[in-house]
Design brief:
This protein is of the alpha+beta class. The protein is 39% helix and 15% strand.
Length: 66
Amino acid sequence: MKKFIAENSGILDKKGKQGYYDPDFENGSGILVIIASGGINEFNDQDYINFITDVKKNDPEFYKAL
């Protein structure tokens, strides 16, 4: 999938997910792909989002592990 779907880190960092939609997937001949970030998504509260943002800025290797 990564060959065809380009992740956008800006979208993932702000929204927590990025979608790719091919309308033909409903007919069984296309795809629906959702790429999600485990760090930031709509289920996290603001304290956790602040924590993840801080970790990304100050410890990029730890952020990758998260």
